From TrEMBL:
Protein name: RGS domain-containing protein
Taxonomic path: Eukaryota, Viridiplantae, Streptophyta, Embryophyta, Tracheophyta
TM segment ranges: 14-36, 48-72, 84-104, 125-144, 156-181, 193-213, 225-244
Compositionally biased tracts (Basic and acidic residues): 441-452
Region of interest (Disordered), ranges: 429-452
Pfam families: RGS (PF00615)
Species the sequence originates in: Malus baccata (Siberian crab apple)
Length: 452
């Protein structure tokens, strides 16, 4: 026991390493499977990079504990085996510190979006390095003072401030999350968030106790073996619980966001689109499209909008029509559901408004800044000015060419066919004898009566 306590390679050490490997594999599977199996589109910007950075930080934390606490029996002969490399730089700024900073960055965004109802004043790619700076400064200070011995342990006078920094970041995360507890999130994000934080806080509490024991009681062999086992196992549970918190994943919580509220119908006829008259009519009646009508009025017609969107996409100028489509869908969200309005607004801003967005629309600087600096992301008229500008742009650059395109000709043909079918169905509905004669043989419930 005494030998492996110093040099590593105890049975409990290998068991702890195996548990940490399983936890990290579960973390990776939770990150990858929704995209590989369910074919969910990859999120953009911070929605993609923060979970990736979180996985990287989780790997650093687990690997640094294995390397610095002598879990595996090997000689430290190279510079990258150094205690300062693993226990100071990899474990602190690039491990635990980076992991907590990612979570705080996401909680910071949630706080501003859903409580303040405005975009965060600092973007994630700036906020994350800023909040990580105390960890980097602390690691540099320890590197200069060099308090670690050959077993990567430091005295209690160093252990207390180091653990205080760990506890401070946990408290900051809990504080931001507590500020949004009253928001009625859909799809149980808040419940999952608090569950993850409670599990993580418990893991960190156990982890801190084990860290103290491992650092201070260096002379007790069995305590060294037991404490480092607990350190690695609780760290493994911590990284898995942190990644399972719904705001960190585009993962399974994003799948639920793609679902729609189930529609309720009083009768089967309503569900099938059959009115009280008994005739099956199209859900959206065919309209005669007049090119002289205002474009904004024409775009209210869903079939016309889809045809116009295909034409705009073929001209590599479809972002304006797609923007109109998503703003139109946001307008259907009830006023008493501000969380969905805010979520949709953030999605539209990330996709169309911010500079360098995937489908950045061509709007004036004034309109763009009005959206980016809004004080209320839930307001229904948030995108009206930008929409008016884009409609004018579409009138100038797309509408005239659309009337002479094959897309419009095809649209007119389909509209004409729908009108003809509707006329035939209406004529059939008003002729009872025709309806009866159209039923033959065993399918006719009145067949036997007619023969008699």
């Amino acid at each position: 026991m005494a030998s492996c306590a110093v040099e590593g390679g105890c049975a409990s050490d290998y068991l702890a390493v195996a548990i940490s490997a399983v936890c990290f594999i579960l973390l990776l599977s939770r990150a990858i499977l929704p995209f590989a199996v369910l074919k969910i589109p990859l999120p953009k910007r911070s929605g993609f990079w923060i979970p990736v950075i979180q996985i990287y930080a989780s790997l650093n934390l687990l690997l640094s504990l294995v390397m610095s606490l002598n879990f595996l029996k090997f000689k430290k002969t190279y510079w990258w085996h150094s205690c300062y490399f693993w226990a100071v730089w990899i474990e602190a700024p690039l491990g635990f510190g980076l992991l907590l900073s990612c979570r705080i960055s996401q909680a910071f965004q949630l706080y501003y979006i859903f409580v303040k109802r405005c975009l965060p004043p600092i973007r994630s790619y700036i906020f994350l390095p800023l909040i990580l700076m105390p960890w980097i400064a602390g690691a540099a200070f320890i590197q200069i003072k060099r308090p670690l011995n050959n077993r990567c342990h430091m005295g209690i006078q160093w252990t207390i401030p180091v653990m205080s920094l760990h506890t401070l970041y946990v408290a900051i995360l809990v504080g931001f999350t507590g500020a949004i507890w009253h928001i009625e999130f859909r799809f149980d994000e808040l419940r999952d968030l608090w569950r993850g934080i409670l599990v993580s806080a418990f893991s960190i509490g156990v982890w801190v106790v084990a860290y103290f024991l491992n650092e201070i009681h260096e002379d007790i062999s069995w305590l060294q073996v037991a404490s480092r086992f607990v350190l690695l196992v609780t760290a493994s549970i911590l990284v898995l619980a942190f990644f399972s918190m719904s705001s960190s994943q585009p993962l399974l919580s994003k799948v639920s966001l793609r679902k729609r509220e189930p529609l309720s119908f009083e009768t089967m006829g309503q569900a099938l689109g059959i009115p009280n008259s008994g005739i099956l009519l199209p859900r959206e009646p065919a309209h005669v499209i007049d090119p002289d009508e205002p474009l904004d009025k024409l775009l209210m017609n869903k079939r016309f909008r889809q045809s116009f969107m295909k034409f705009a996409d073929s001209c590599l100028a479809g972002e304006s029509v797609h923007f109109y489509e998503e703003v139109h869908e946001r307008g259907k969200i009830p006023a008493d559901d501000p969380v969905r309005r805010i979520y949709m607004a953030r999605h539209i801003i990330d996709k169309y408004i911010i500079a360098g967005a995937a489908m950045e629309v061509n709007i004036s600087h004034r309109s763009r800044q009005a959206i980016l600096t809004t004080s209320n992301l839930a307001q229904p008229n948030l995108f009206n000015d930008a929409l008016n500008e884009l409609i004018q742009l579409m009138k100038t650059n797309l509408a005239k060419e659309f009337w002479s395109s094959m897309y419009f000709k095809k649209f007119k043909e389909e509209a004409s066919m729908r009108s003809h079918e509707l006329e035939q169905m209406t004529r059939w509905h008003h002729s009872p004898s025709t309806r009866l004669s159209a039923v033959h043989g065993v399918d006719d419930p009145f067949h036997q009566e007619q023969e008699s």
